[in-house]
Design goal:
By secondary structure, the protein is an alpha+beta fold. It is 21% helix and 15% strand.
Amino acid sequence: MNTKRHQPYGSRPTKPSSNIESFSPTEPCTRSTRARIRKVRGPPSKGRRPGDQSKRLQEIQHALSEISPVPSAATSTVSPTRNTPVWSPRETVRDVYLETIQQFYPYYTPKNDFEILLLSGGQYKAEASVEGIMQYVEKRMRSAMSAFRGSQEFIIQNAAKTLNMVPDITGLKPRPGDFGVFIRPIPNSEYSLRLFPGCKAASEYCLDFVLSATGEPVNSPFEFNLFAGPGPSIPVGFAPTMGIEPLECSFGIARKDIRPGAEKFVLRDGQRCMLQRPGHKDVQFTVPMRRRPEPPRVDIDNIELPEYV
């Protein structure tokens, strides 16, 4: 869900086949978004030898495989102390993009769907003024019209096709009352883990850190390593234990440049994870799994086999 020199927290459901700028650390459910797990390399330790990291990963994978999964608990919410804003619905990609534009450019209201698509990524970095944005939009419109040899109406109509899509997005931060959000305190810490749904079709779940007292999201509040491995229902050979880095880093954004409170980590349904902190016991948890609809019944003969042996 993965991203910012000052990046958007909206998303782009499908990358338009145009040169219209559209970039976001939140993502649509596409094949390219399903392989962002990379190893996390901390600062070199004195005396570390080649192979130590691989050996440590094997030890962690073994430890995770030996731990019984934590029973899932009821969804919990933490109400922030700030005034709760009036949220608009997120029924279409347009709704999501309008929300992110309000975060980036509160002084500007887009005039058409092309402007919504263009400004949703927060690429405009020049003078914070209505005039500056209007000049930027006009320049990008001329470029799009030239590239597609179409009229302004044609460009706007094509932007609308993307914005009318129903969002299934990884990385979009949850709002109060959203379904499937879990907040759990981290032992011996003033912070909590928060898990919230990402793209359901890709079985992606997101994790971030929040202040336990307020629910306010924060970026990496302490030194840690996060590992994810196969859960009880995933064969070990198909899902090796890996270190997880922020989604934003997979977009080329340095951790220090991630907008405050925007950082998130992408996990998968059913993964068993371990959080390591220097001087503290390791913390483990299993990512919730979302139920999928029963497949339609067909007239076939079914051969029964045990699920586990």
